[in-house]
Specification:
9 helices; 14 strands; alpha/beta; Rossmann fold; Elongation Factor Tu (Ef-tu), domain 3; six-stranded antiparallel sheet; six-stranded parallel sheet
Length: 308
C-alpha cells in the first residue's frame, strides 16, 4: 500500500482509482464492508483500490475533543492489512474544512485524482456546512462522469446494533469491551511507548509499565483484563486506566501489570489488547487496601484470560 500525503504531484498510477471516502475510525466491520465494495468495483473495472481518510478526525478538529479510537499509525496499519493499493491522507485543517462539497469533488476528486468510482458508507457527510451526502454525490457523478455507490448499514444480528464508530465509542465509554470488540471485529487495543511513572506499583508488590493516552478517545476508567504484546510475544496482564484518585492524580494513564514478568520496558513500544472490564476505578484509603484489591483483581483477570 502506498500512502499519499502530498497532493501536488499525484502519481498517474493512483489516478482513476476506485476510492472509498470516510474517517474509517476503528476500521470496524462496517468499514470492512465498504472496502469489499471497493475491491469488487476495482476487479470489475480493472482499476486500483484506494481509501481517503482525514487527520485529525473532523470531530476532534471542530469540538476539540479526542475521538480517535486508534492512533493514526495503528489505523494506517489496519488499513494496510486490507490490501488496499493507495491510502490518501488528508490533513484536516481550516482550509480543508472551508471547502464546499462541490469544490472538494470538482477540484480534488475529479481534477486531481480523476476518480473512476466513489464508495461511501451509509452515514458519510462532507464539505463545508455538511453539504455533501449521498444525494449530492449521485448528482455529481452524472456531471463529472464517475461511478458512485453507497454501502447500506450493517447490523450485528444477535444484538441488533449498527456497525458504527459512534457505537464503538459508546461501548468503550460504558466499559462494555465485549460489545466494542464485537463491533470492531477484533479486540480494542492501545499502542504506545512505555514512559516513566512514579514507580508506586513496585512499592506494593505490583510492578507496572505506563502508557500515555495522548490523542486517543478514552474508554471508561477502571480495571481491565488485557493481553500485552511485546516484541512479538503475547502475555497475560491486568491494566488500570484512569487518573489514580488514591494518589490525587488527574492525568489519564494506562498502567499495566504483566503477570510473571520483570524486564525493563522503558521506551519500548507496547500493544495492550483489552479483553474484559473488571471494575470501575476507585479511591482507596491506604496502600494496604489497594494492594489487597489489586490481588483480587489479578486473580479475576487471570481467570478471564485463561478461559478466553
Amino acid at each position: 500500500m502506498k500512502i499519499i500525503r502530498n497532493f501536488s504531484h499525484i502519481p498517474n498510477i493512483a489516478k482513476e482509482s476506485i476510492i472509498a471516502l470516510g474517517n474509517f475510525d476503528g476500521l470496524h466491520l462496517g468499514h470492512q464492508e465498504i472496502i469489499k465494495e471497493v475491491k469488487a468495483k476495482a476487479k470489475l473495472l480493472q482499476k486500483k483500490t484506494a481509501l481517503m481518510t482525514f487527520f485529525p478526525h473532523p470531530q476532534s478538529f471542530f469540538n476539540n475533543k479526542q475521538t480517535n479510537i486508534f492512533k493514526l499509525r495503528d489505523k494506517v496499519a489496519l488499513i494496510k492489512e486490507q490490501n488496499i493499493d493507495f491510502l490518501f491522507l488528508i490533513h484536516f485543517d481550516h482550509n480543508f474544512a472551508n471547502l464546499s462539497a462541490e469544490e472538494f469533488v470538482r477540484d480534488f476528486l475529479t481534477k486531481k485524482l480523476h476518480v473512476k468510482h466513489i464508495v461511501i458508507g451509509y452515514d458519510f457527510i462532507f464539505g463545508k456546512n455538511r453539504s455533501g451526502n449521498a444525494t449530492y454525490l449521485q448528482e455529481a457523478a452524472k456531471r463529472y462522469a464517475f461511478g458512485f455507490s453507497q454501502v447500506a448499514s450493517h447490523k450485528v444480528t444477535e444484538h441488533n446494533l449498527i456497525y458504527s464508530s459512534s457505537q464503538v465509542r459508546l461501548a468503550l465509554t460504558c466499559g462494555d469491551i465485549k460489545k466494542a470488540n464485537l463491533l470492531l471485529g477484533k479486540n480494542y487495543f492501545i499502542t504506545n511507548r512505555v514512559i516513566n511513572g512514579e514507580k508506586r506499583g513496585r512499592s506494593i508488590g505490583f510492578r507496572t509499565i505506563n502508557l500515555a493516552l495522548n490523542d486517543l478517545f478514552s474508554p471508561k476508567y477502571g480495571v481491565y483484563a488485557v493481553w500485552a504484546h511485546i516484541a512479538g510475544k503475547k502475555m497475560p496482564a491486568i491494566a488500570n486506566l484512569g487518573i489514580r484518585p488514591s494518589f490525587k492524580e488527574n492525568t489519564p494513564l494506562l498502567e499495566v501489570h504483566i503477570f510473571n514478568f520483570s524486564g525493563d520496558l522503558y521506551n519500548h513500544k507496547v500493544k495492550i489488547e483489552f479483553v474484559l472490564f473488571i471494575r470501575a476505578e476507585q479511591k482507596f484509603a491506604n496502600k494496604e487496601s489497594l494492594a489487597q484489591q489489586i490481588k483480587t483483581d489479578c486473580q479475576k483477570a487471570q481467570e478471564i484470560l485463561y478461559e478466553a
